[in-house]
Amino acid sequence: MSEAAILVIGGAGYIGSHMVMDLLRASYPVVILDNLSRGHRELLPGGDFVNGDMGNPQDLRAVFAKYPVKAVMHFAAHSLVGESVEQPLAYYRNNVANTITLLEEMERANIGHFIFSSTAAVYGEPVSTPIAEDHPCAPTNPYGATKLAVERLLADVSHANGMTFSILRYFNAAGADHSGKIGERHQPETHLIPLVLQVATGERESIKIFGDDYPTPDGTCLRDYVHVSDLTRAHLLALEHLLAGGANTTCNLGNSNGYSVRQIIDTAREITGHAIPAETVARRAGDPAILIADSSKIRRELGWQPAYEDVGDIIRSAWVWHQQEASG
């Protein structure tokens, strides 16, 4: 590979594999580093794959010695809230300590651009909605805390060595690539839309609704769903911004529309033609009633415009993928 490449850390995961797809469509040479602990190599649509770990300096040095990397995209964090509460040390080790190793090796190799996959979990309990980037950051779980720690680390590293970065705070990523070739596959699955669709494919008997007494129109939680391909388009815009000499930026990624749990289930019933039995159970601790993004900053500054603003379109794309998954 003679052209300058983009290194995608965690590129065999859900969002990472969609990022690889869109980078290839945009004609960027792509290198993927993934230890496959949570990713799936068979979902990679192309690029040069390296089975390695961002916490291993030797793996990173080998990649940087072989490939002319000009920017790094980081999708390799552990991201389950409940697991982070149970295993905080594992989350701080992978999400923070291993990212420090990555940044050290980038500095050694003189690689100056970094795009970080962050999360709305850095905000914690919302004090106002929709949530803008200047909302107070007070994460309520180790997952959000580790993401915020890396955000602060990036600011310090940038000040010290001139590295430029883009931080993209996701709300609820969902959907699948329009080709139907890649989509969401997690073990265990914790996201609402795939869980609902797994009922329609027969992989689950029913879906649980955690509380129906929230201060929302139908009593169930409201969330902002953003299509995974809209996320990756935002990363491409952030990459082009940095490569053109743009300044550091932190942006929310959401549709700025809220859909309730019941609305998601009802829409999935309509799309799949399946009854999708639902059972209401007690609230989960720490679930805010409403989480909706103010994504006006990235629209204004980077020209981002989501292609999938209707949640029905998001669910339809996921349904194509999940039917294929269920059929083997």
Structure explained in plain terms:
- The chain has helices at 14-25, 57-66, 81-86, 88-109, 142-161, 192-200, 228-243, 261-272, 296-302, 311-327, and strands at residues 5-9, 30-34, 48-51, 69-74, 113-119, 164-170, 172-174, 207-210, 222-223, 225-227, 249-253, 259-260, 278-281, 290-291.
- The chain is of the alpha/beta class.
- The chain folds into two domains: 5-174 and 225-253, Rossmann fold, CATH 3.40.50; 192-224 and 256-327, UDP-galactose 4-epimerase, domain 1.
- The longest helix has 22 residues, at 88-109.
- The two termini are 34 Å apart.
- The model has no long low-confidence stretch (mean pLDDT 95).
Structure characteristics:
328 residues; alpha/beta; Rossmann fold; UDP-galactose 4-epimerase, domain 1; 2 domains; seven-stranded parallel β-sheet; globular
The arrangement of helices and strands along the chain is: EHEEHEHHEHEEHEEEHEEHEEHH
Largest sheet: 7 strands, parallel
- CATH superfamily placement of the largest domain: NAD(P)-binding Rossmann-like Domain
Radius of gyration from the alpha-carbon trace, in angstroms? 19 Å
Separate helix tally: 10
The proportion of residues forming helix, as a percent range, comes to 25-40%
The CATH architecture name of the largest domain reads: 3-Layer(aba) Sandwich
